[in-house]
Amino acid sequence: MDIILCPTAEEASLRAAALITNAVRARPATVLGLATGSTPLRLYQALIQACRDGLDFSRVRTFNLDEYYGVAPDHPQSYRRFMNEHLFDHLNLNPANTRVPDGLARDVAAHCAAYEAEMRAAGGVDIQVLGIGSDGHIGFNEPGSSLASRTRLVALTPQTVSDNARFFATVDEVPRHAISMGIGTILEAKRCVMLCFGANKAKAVRAALEGGISQFTPASALQMHPDTTVFLDEAAAADLQLKEYYRWSAANQPA
Ligand code: F6R
Questions:
Q1: How many domains would you assign to the chain?
Q2: Which ligand 1 atom is nearest residue 36's CA?
Q3: Which of 65, 154, 196 maximizes ligand 1 atoms within 8 Å of its Cβ, making it the mutation to test the pocket?
């Protein structure tokens, strides 16, 4: 795991964006795994800027981590709509190359299997963007999720429902289920890039990066991934025991 501690979320987002734009420049048919939520918003703005500055996304394919179950793609809080509004509509992507699980899938198991098959047919995810939940989740893999889990229907925890209530008129409107890539699915990405910002993530970050690998902290599974970069701001890194070492090593990279 490469742990990159940045003074601000702004700097961390721009560094993560550079990693992605470099990959797309080197391989125009890059397959991106994408997340929703507040965390990647600045990163997505930077990708939009890169496209305006001439970076070609026309051959990029995308697979989103998750979608609320029972929510139509055009629902104001659907993750499909979030992605269209915050990223897809502003890039020269082929809309047919953007995939988000279907929250209205009738046969959920078949839909999840088809989603995974499509990822495999695309050659697998090259770079998976991740945020972390305050309970340590990645995607919607809540504490207790099998570290080998695949794309499936999951129940959200009360903590996640309450964290996400800010996007809905009332907490009662927050869906209780989602379709999410599994932890095993996420670990198959060639590279993972996790962004962790803000003091409310500090406890989960410490458990994920410095605790034992456990299904109680799903993000800790990334410790087993051979190519994961974690970008943190100071607030999210506040509880890290090896904080000074991460800072030192970032400042003393080989030439
Ligand atoms: C969203 C997702 C979630 C979020 C996490 C953090 O697609 O997969 O795991 O990354 O809940 O959310 P924010 O960024 O809103 O704090």
A1: 1
A2: 7
A3: 65
CATH number, position 20: 3.40.50.1360
Distance CA 57, CA 94 (A): 8
Beta pairing class for 61-64 and 98-99: parallel
Indicate the average pLDDT of the chain.
Answer: 96
Kindly provide the residue ranges of all beta strands, DSSP E only, lying in the chain, ordered along the sequence: 2-6, 31-34, 61-64, 66-68, 98-99, 127-130, 152-155, 177-180, 191-196, 228-233
- Give the atom of ligand 1 at the shortest distance from the alpha carbon of 197: 16
Token look-up 């095993």 returns 184
pLDDT digits (tens, 9 = 90+) for 155-191: 999 988 998 998 899 999 999 999 999 999 999 999 9
| Distance between CA atoms of residues 15 and 21, nearest Å | 10
Token duo for residue 132:
């972390």
**Nearest to residue 196, comparing CAs of 37, 51, 67?**
37
Is beta strand 98-99 parallel, antiparallel or unpaired with respect to 191-196? unpaired
Q: Specify the pTM.
A: 0.96
Length of the chain: 255
pLDDT tens column, 128-165: 999 999 999 999 999 999 999 999 999 999 988 998 99
Tell me which residue range forms the domain holding 160: 2-251
Can you tell me the distance from the alpha carbon of 33 to that of 36, in angstroms, rounded to the nearest whole number?
11
Cβ–ligand 1 contact at 78 (below 6 Å):
no
- Give yes or no for a contact between 108 and 153, defined as CB atoms under 8 angstroms apart: yes
How crowded is the C-beta side of 226, counted as CA atoms within 13 Å? 4
**In degrees rounded to 5, what are phi and psi of residue 202?**
-60, -40
